[in-house]
Amino acid sequence: MSTAQGARARARTEVTAAIKDEARRQLAAEGAARLSLRAVARELGMVSSALYRYFPSRDDLLTALITDAYDSLGGSAEAAHEAAAGGLFERWIAVCEAVRSWALEHPHEYALIYGTPVPGYTAPDTTVPAAARVGLLLIGIAREAHRGPGLARPALPADLRPEAERMVADFAPDVPPEVVTALVAAWAQLYGLVSFELFGQFNRMVEDRAAFFRHAVGQLARGVGLVPGPA
């Protein structure tokens, strides 16, 4: 790459980052539904036509912000997983607590990906790999337990087995069907716990939220079949 090409690439990276930063500021101030390319351009001192060379539409900018948010969340969860001391049960707790910590530190970005859908916007399939990072971590923990120390498999109603086997084939190979259904339920409940705290549903109800959360996600781990290690 020539010096001129490198300078152009760096400039484009810097402008793209500035656009995203201003868009995140607007998310915090106005909400995703009111995000406007014209307003972003105005705040950055750009003409709209220049900004469109980076993001042709509001939806393209939203998609970039959503992917960045999922990747940031996934990166935090993966780092916690790698740093966790103890066994698989403890790794599960660490991943869940990293999700909560990230959400509390990035409430507007969390609301963008797990809050009210943006009217008129549908996230494209390109966001799926980033969105799947936390779920794949939890699946991986269950798979490792199944291959190693074992899982206390939950019960599975007969009428749910075909759906459970489909899920195994679709996104959780080598994980028992009984465990996959429990994993999907735990994944949904994890974000329910975080959303209740972040959006004020625990106000005047739960005071020691960190302790409550740790207990609750430990129950989710047990429901999946993970067994705590020695104290």
From TrEMBL:
Sequence ranges assigned to domain HTH tetR-type in this UniProt record: 13-73
InterPro entries registered for this protein in UniProt: Homeodomain-like_sf (IPR009057), HTH-type_TetR-like_transc_reg (IPR050109), HTH_TetR (IPR001647), MT1864/Rv1816-like_C (IPR025996), Tet_transcr_reg_TetR-rel_C_sf (IPR036271)
Keywords carried by this UniProt record: DNA-binding, Transcription, Transcription regulation
Name this protein carries in UniProt: TetR family transcriptional regulator
GO MF assignments: DNA-binding transcription factor activity; transcription cis-regulatory region binding
Stored SUPFAM superfamilies: Homeodomain-like, Tetracyclin repressor-like, C-terminal domain
Residues within the DNA-binding region(s): 36-55
Annotated source species: Streptomyces variegatus
Coiled coil: none
UniProt cross-references to Pfam families, sorted A to Z: TetR_C_33 (PF13305), TetR_N (PF00440)
